[in-house]
Amino acid sequence: MNKVRVYELAKELGITSKKLIEVMEGMNIAVNNHMSTLTDEEAKRVMAILTGRSDEKLSKEKEKAPEKETQKAEPEKTPAKKVKKKEKEIEQTEEKPVPSRKARKAIQEEKRAAMLKAKRPVLKLEGQITVAELAGRIDTTPAQLISYLMEMGIMANINQPLNPETVELIAEEYGYDFDYVEDPVEEELLSASSDEESMEEILRKPVVTVLGHVDHGKTSLLDAIRNANVTAGEVGGITQHIGAYQVKVNDRKIVFLDTPGHEAFTAMRARGAQVTDIAILVVAADDGVMPQTIEAINHAKAAQVPVLVAINKIDKPDANPDRVKQQLSDQGLISEEWGGDTIFVPVSAVRGNGLEELLEMILLLSEVAELKACPDRAGRGTVIEAKLDRGRGPVATVLVQDGTLRIGDPIICGSIAGKVRAMINDRGERVKSAGPSTPVEIQGLSDVPMAGDLFQVVSDDRVARQVAGKRADKIKEATRRVQRVTLDDLFKQIQEGEVKDLNLILKADVQGSVEALQDALFKLSLEEVQIKIIHTGVGAINESDVMLASASNAIVIGFNVRPDSNARKLAEHDQVDIRLYRIIYEAIEDIKAAVTGMLKPIMKEVIQGQAEVRQLFKVSRLGSIAGSHVIEGKITRNALIRVIRDGTVVLDNGKIDSLKRFKDDVREVLTGYECGILIENFNDLREGDIIEAYVMEQVAR
Length: 701
What we know:
The protein is of the alpha+beta class. Helix content is 34%, strand content 29%. The protein has a six-stranded mixed beta sheet with strand order 9-10-8-11-12-13, sandwiched between helices. A six-stranded antiparallel beta barrel has the order 15-16-21-19-18-22. The chain has a six-stranded antiparallel beta barrel with strand order 27-28-33-30-29-34. The N and C termini lie far apart (61 Å).
């Protein structure tokens, strides 16, 4: 028996993980939760206690396993007899592990549970099952279910589809018998690939993500690898067209996902995307392990992705690779030289040292993993990123994980249907097909999908539209059932007993503001609800903040910062309440008033659009005119203006003095167009600033 997780052993024994953990506590076997692993010896001891069979007998039965098929099975003895028999056997063994009173009690409870099992309610589900839908069916909240999934090592958001195996485990823990039925329409969708199991699989390219602390050289390392592995004639044309690229090493290829770091890696996993085969952890030899390094390690471990360590900046005079190895060994990554199983490669992104060895180690790890796929199947894979392009419509960068994607293929992508009209590879070239482990940008979807959505080629446009529509309806229905916490209805939810803890995420422009806001909130003495601050940070409110709020049913409080465009859209989609303040006491007063049901009518802010400052023109007697490009929505002459610099508000409640298109005064400028903006009494503009136009509307509570 190899290493086994608690829930797997519980399933094999036919008992719940909770009961198994109780038994193990009585046997002095320390485990944290149902995802903990047991050694071979521990698993045998537990099996021996609960089945009444000794280790020797277990091994003999394994040897005779083929003979058992032809022999008549022995009648099973009652659990009580088994326990008595085992107690006698234990006395004769060297360890003599006698079950405690707690373990015996757990066994007796398990016998009673077995009698009641036949009377358990049946959870009957069909087709794609989302977190929100499952939570509603097993009488729990989405936040609690997401928390439970995180304990299982599964990152999920509220609209995340779950596979039947995961649902079965959850149903078992919540006391349900699970009855899964394929949706007849989904079954038709999958019928095209039902006869593909016998198709021959071939080795595919490994997909690699680079993680690590900021400034430790992730981007430099990626650039060095890319530049070292293209021919001289291609160097000028290697501009990134999509968020992934391929390099060739000894007639084999490696695919690198060019993510900003562990945040994007986590965002993908939070939406169910297991696209990475290998994670390269970049650690600076002169800096050592930092907080983000540890976060990256935890994310890779949670995704069960093998980690290869690249010790960067070995050319620096104060480089100390041995210190890095020591620090990483404390995090469970032990070098092969020190008797562990983690590969460490010293590199210099600046000088190009160690790059060849790093790439060879990636290929070695991929060979050990035996990564395979079949190019003859219908294409399927994952969305890496997606956007709405003004000229081309919805555009998605996808990674084909199995099969082949071709021009003209009807596809279904989450709850969106479409037909592949065009494909562009990582070199910016148009291609007609893409095989396994190939990143391409596609056009032809009916809407913009979410990063992490799974796509699949289907045989029929009609079926794709039908399934997409049904999935979209199920998501809408599940979202309607979700009761999100907002300051507006906090009092009502407290009265109904739905909210006992108020979870908050705090973001501010500087660390001092975060600490001041945190201290002020902790000093609030509220009998009705307990305030829990689950995350704090400096800078703009981003997608990760909104996803965390969605998972933990929290309210996001922003002080002197703004949500970025993606975060705002995700908050609207997941119904997350974001509150923005410029004065600390206003945030405190709002929370106090919300708890007591005394909130005043609110003025709701409606964002009209955003423009990016591309060039500044100094005009005497007028000041600075911002030559701007409207990147979202529209800029209107009568709107209020806010200036945002690196996620921080530098001007609020401003007014437009002049709005021009070329030399003409205009009332509004739409997305994609250039304009000149002059702001009243404000000249401190810089290139790269975001000018945000908004209006205030009064909303009754």
